[in-house]
Amino acid sequence: MITEIFTYIDPEPPVPANGGSLEGITVAVQPTMGVRGWPTEAGSVALERYVALEDATVVDRLRREGATIIGSTRISELGFGLVGDTSARAVSEGAVDVALAMDTMGEARIAAASAHLFGYKPSYGIVSRFGLIGLIPSMECFGMIARTPREISSVLSVMAGKDDHDFSMSDEFPDFESFDAVTVENVKLGVVREAMEFLDQDAYRAFRSSLSYLEKAGMSIREVSLDEYDLFRTIHNVIGSVEASSSAGKYDGVRYGHRAQAVKNWNEMYLKSRGEAFGLPVKAYLFQGAYFQFENYEAFDSACRIRSMLVRLMESLHETVDYLILPMKSGNVPASDMKTIDEIYGLCSHALPANVTGVPVIYMPGGLFGRETDPGFQLLAPRLGDARLLAFAAHLFDQAEGGV
Amino acid sequence: MDYEAVIGLEIHIQLNSDTKMFCNCPNRPGDEPNKNTCPVCLWFPGAIPQFSGEVLEKAALAALALNCEIQDHTAFDQKVYYYPDLPKGYQLSQFHKPLAKNGWIEINDDEGRPKRIGIRQVHMEEDVARLVHETEGKTPISLVDFNRAGTPLIEIVSEPDIRNSHEAMEYIKVLRSQIRYVGSAECSMEQGTMRVDANISIRPRGSDHFNTKVEVKNMNSIHNVGAAITYEISRQAERLNAGESIVLHTRLWDPDRNVTVAMRGKFEGPCVPDPSVPPIIVSHEWLSDIRSRLPEMPSGKSERFIRQYGLTRDEAVLMSSERDLSEYFEAVAGDAVTPRTAYQWIMTQLNPLLKDYRQTISETVVTPKRLASLLAMLESDVLNAKSAREVLSKLFESDQTPEAIVEQYGFRQVSDSDELEGLVEQVLSDNPQAIDDFKAGNEKALGFLIGQGMRASQGKANPKLMKDMITRKLQE
Prior knowledge:
The complex is a heterodimer of chains A (about 400) and B (about 475).
Chain A: E1 6-9, E2 26-29, H1 57-64, E3 68-73, H2 87-92, E4 98-103, H3 107-113, E5 118-121, E6 141-146, H4 149-159, E7 188-192, H5 193-196, H6 201-216, E8 220-224, H7 231-247, H8 266-277, H9 280-294, H10 297-320, E9 323-327, H11 341-348, H12 352-357, E10 361-364, E11 377-380, H13 386-401
Helix pairs in contact in A: 4-13, 7-9, 7-10, 9-10
Chain B: E1 3-14, H1 53-65, E2 69-70, E3 73-74, E4 77-80, E5 90-93, E6 100-108, E7 114-126, E8 130-134, E9 141-145, E10 152-158, H2 165-182, E11 194-204, E12 214-219, H3 222-241, E13 249-254, E14 259-264, E15 271-273, E16 280-281, H4 284-292, H5 298-309, H6 313-319, H7 323-332, H8 339-357, H9 368-379, H10 385-395, H11 402-409, H12 417-430, H13 432-439, H14 444-456, H15 463-475
Parallel strand pairs in B: 12-13
Antiparallel strand pairs in B: 1-10, 1-11, 2-6, 3-16, 4-5, 4-15, 6-7, 7-10, 8-9, 11-12, 13-14
């Protein structure tokens, strides 16, 4: 069945396992996440009629703990950009408790922001990417959208963990058991000065208004500096486009997906199949990547080195504060209108640091603290600090709900 | 002008691991097309490559066999190009951080002097799918067999230390022997498990300049590598003498016409670090474990064979050239069998029979133990050589012990002079003419009489005893 929100709804979901920690929880996936037997076209003609052969590890783990996977939401082509994305709607309209949304450049958080929901991106390497059809392996992961941080935490604690199918995983994992009782006293927060410089006056005022609640609750917020903040976007773009160009190489129409008809030879078959399959933003992005691969490898090489430096800078910032605060939104154009690479990166710019450096991040919706129209903000923790970050977010949420 | 050639070889070797490099599919390219495939080696969306520990071990052993230094930190790159035999637009290979560097092997140059050939690096890469172009019929089609896609290769890049086709062929033989020794690969050029490309340039003798090289491919035997290099050197010399210049390109060896033919301009795609396969960090413990599995290598072993078994240098080199053969030899040569007997019987008797029965030295039904028992009977005069040969061929047909075969067929040598007494009498009385000839000084007559005696004993008589007895009778 196909609806405005779902490209596919499971007509007969398997009977949920009894006694699991996710009993009764409903989850939506995206058509970039493998569920055996489901159409999995990743929003692209390149994958037309493709049906997943295997369950993603995540899907298997969620089902074992009693969750029901309802269906697949709509997604922009190969998850690049947010045009036509319905993951947040699936939650805000009550179709599911938690929506999984691939987060490569902030998609889960930005979609959550559009619907006053919590959006989450875990530490890189704690959730198996097996069965995730992505474009940028070193940045992408299973993101989550939900009404409360606790729902995110309970789903993430099931999804996280070693998987023999994914060798790129971390050797260590967050301990979700040991962060039940968190207090906000003496918590040190740092807001990145250079990020605020990107905000116009209205946005800055709204952002500060959200933060003032935290200060009232007794937390100290200090300004920290990251001179290289404007590099995140460039680094993400250079490395991301190169990885995307390689990752999309497999969509050649030889083994699955779209194949052009009436061609003279294999070379023409490649060119026409790929030409017909990809939409404009993806094509432009792949061209960028091919440019760096073939014509300007030095730029890519520098980007990789700068990325390592950014990872270290983030680590050193986290040595001075418990959590970093970044704004979420930039500009007022809706995500669905972002069609060029520049527009997409413009929209995502504050979301990128977490993807580039692999740290966990939660989007705290506006309206939770202060005015309904406030934009909310992102809280970032050090890598593998997921459990503590989510416990802290849950604590803030409880306080806000309780009207403290 | 007098030219000297500068040659470097790039050798691809298919490792004999059980599985492919990044998935658990069997490493058997020859099976029914597309049988050994899975979402990983077909690069279906959502699949993640899982690098095989067994492949790493086999590759590291091969690199150690070539005296290379295994690198602590090694990683895969994507070699980007688009071709239907490559199901994802790039080949996983190692460019920036190869597995091993700075190796060498020793060969004998064309004057028999030892010479070291440097090995720049050994790296791992996946093989590609096999293409079958069906050009007959109404619509020509191309078929892709993915059985080979993702099977493990190592590429061994030599330094440009090779100067002629003799050295190139020696280099390939020594390298092949050493890699077979550690059990990482079969290394058969004929069967395609070893592929050799040669980079060849020439320069005036005495120069240390490196000129533009030409790559030559498609040699499917060591002999062809030698022939192609010899041809290419003289082709380049002719061009230079004619005032032309050499341009960088690839040529194919045509074994029917014995010439190299220009193929295409050399295309080098970019090599981008792969983000999906984690870097390989080699620990000290792991490396010591792999080192401890290195067997005694052929050069050391042949020296030992000379010392320990008294073989000549040529015999020792031959016996140690293949690990299976050397181990077979050592298992046969022991207390009851002299090394020389073992060597001679393996080379002159066992080897031809192995060919006839299409068995290999490592898998033959004539185990070292069976051959040793047989040769022990020969050496203790229970059998004579002729009977031993017959027992050996029976060993291929039966699973009985050599002792049982000797008893069953009555091969036991007759060394009892009482038993032979009557036989000798009979032969002498049947051949008075030969006795007269002998007494007239014709030595050949003695040989004739011994032959008659052996025949009468149906080959079982101890030939030495037979000779002694007849000689004694004739002198009575």
